[in-house]
Sequence to fold (271 residues):
Amino acid sequence: MLHSPWIAALVALFLWWFSTGAILMAVRRADREGAKARLWAVLWNLPFLVLGAFGFADTLGNGTVAGIYVAFLSALALWGWIELAFLTGVITGPVRQPLKDGVPEWERFIRAWGTIAYHEMLLAFTLLAMIAASFGAENRFGLWTFAVLFAARISAKLNLYLGVRKINVEFIPEHLNHLPSHFRTARMNWLFPISITGLSVAAAYWLGHIFAAETAADAVGYALLGALTALALLEHWFMVLPLPDEKLWRWMLPSRPAPTNQAILHSEDAR
Fold:
């Protein structure tokens, strides 16, 4: 059954939904207990980072269907741990204050970059390490999985910076309340059509390779990549369409902690 590319696409869809919800749940629970709990949440989940790195390296020479799935899961584990480190505030950037009004555009960009700098550099370093390790390898689906996630994230963050119609801040933790002040609300920006086109072409490329695949393993790998890219495309559309995407995870999360005095002051400063 797992040899079917359609089952692989459903697996990718489920893992996207489940892993996102699991990370949001861990962050929300840690948020209720304070900064130490957020740090411990990252430390307790270090095995995912280790297993992800080991699984990725171990499957580079394994081109079987099982090897493709493990490579995909390993890339998600690496990505998920780094995202958890960001959302808990453990690895973010040097700028942790809301953006003031009247800041020149060049300074706005530098400050926006400063809110996520360490996290983005860690993602880029991880991707470069995976590229180096995958050179000439039989199974590169783990690398492509991480690369798709990386490209989609960069595109999404740039679109939020330039301006989109809908900005969902419901799942942003209290300690990252300064982030939305660096976003911009707009009907459209010049990058969005390029992002949509690029992701559409990439999704079509992966899905087209399913039918040209010479082995069941390759078909499964391309199905996983195609589904993941299509989901990234859907997430971009969520930024401009009035769809309640937050309902996908809201029901499974504990209630938000009451805002602290510091968060209230940050909110007032942003205004």
